[in-house]
């Protein structure tokens, strides 16, 4: 039966949501039918997540009006007891970050069993067996053993699968998936999306996918609804919206793919700035039994990596979680011991703070999370000036402020646009603005090398494009070298001159970005590229 002929499973009618009298969702109308996959798309602050949370009446401090019709009944008028039944029994939700959504004090099996006992009335032993079965169905290996694990003992992909198993435990008719793959590697993202599609077909449930990743929408959804600043601005089947978007905001989202146009061309004769030969990173590993009393085993996270990077160029490093990317970055930053050779401009780390201080000025880092990488107790002025107080301690207070203001202006933050900029705290800025502050903190000491650890993965697509264009401009102006760690193939295509591919700590392929990304020689590289959805 054609789903378009079925009555709506969920219907939002003139939905309005306000906080403290300030309306953030303005008259949204949306229908979802049984078995449909609908994507709700928009940037941060567009109202996607609060719209989804209103369906389960999880917005305690909000004023919600209009109608949220679940199988014809308005959930806004239901009793607390009836809502308790609907949650999980009929409508389930998967959240973006499983580490905050899962209970750290209970095993995965216990958490799924709890749902089964509460919602399905199973006995404890029956619930335990069913929990293991659900973990198997969501693709977790050794499900019996993994069910006894706590969330911190699982990988990101395993945690997300466990959360999916918990959501599906009560066999809901509608699954709300709020950015369920954002924190995962490209191959894991596609695995999770394919798994969700398979489970959706098997159970016949409807799915509302909340995301800002348009490539995933194209791959997964039947219909797409686009939100901008609380307004539903466009809706239709995926093919028609992607091929002929009518609203300027939808067109802007579709045009936000990173571009290589502003990249500084690579010079063949450029002298290497960073040189690594047979670079190895090892970590101590617990040895079981009494042998562990007398000796310590080592786990090798990075096996003999050899590479070089010239000034004004970008080396992109790609690979799945556990491939050794982070270990490589930490070694380059002098944060962990390493074996082999590693030199920046002829200098190497000596693990002596006083001797390493000059090198610390030459290499700086920008982290993935613009929210967690800035101290909430320091002002923007203090954050950006911190490096100067360490590396240029003789500067006067006026000179420090002048340099901080100039550096913030370089990354697009000025007092004209943000009054009293230096005295503001990070919470007053958006994610993209915070990442600009993090860039200013790194640039203020004039480094030769920036380590960029997933610098745009937490940002909306339009903001991502702005930050990448900014990085391209800064590289042109300052001839800074970038060591770029990312799982986003589009970011590599836009930014990298050279690409190095890591698998289980081994360099399996490296070379010019165009060749590695367009004509990969290694099967692992091909699998990563195939796993990344085309936008």
Structure, explained:
With 535 residues, this protein is an alpha/beta fold. It has three domains: 166 residues, P-loop containing nucleotide triphosphate hydrolases (Rossmann fold); 75 residues, no CATH class; 194 residues, Rossmann fold. It is 38% helix and 24% strand. It has 20 helices and 19 strands. The strands form four sheets. Strands 6-7-8-3-9-10 form a six-stranded mixed beta sheet, sandwiched between helices. Strands 15-16-17-13-18-19 form a six-stranded mixed beta sheet, with helices on both faces. A hairpin with a 2-residue loop joins β1 and β2. α4 packs across α5, α7 packs parallel to α8 and α8 crosses α20. It is globular.
Task: List key phrases describing it.
535 residues; alpha/beta; Rossmann fold; 3 domains; 6-stranded mixed sheet; 38% helix; globular
Mean pLDDT: 89
CATH topology of the largest domain: Rossmann fold
Structural class label? alpha/beta
How many DSSP E strands? 19
Radius of gyration: 25 Å
Strand content: 15-25%
Summarize the biggest pleated sheet.
Answer: 6 strands, mixed
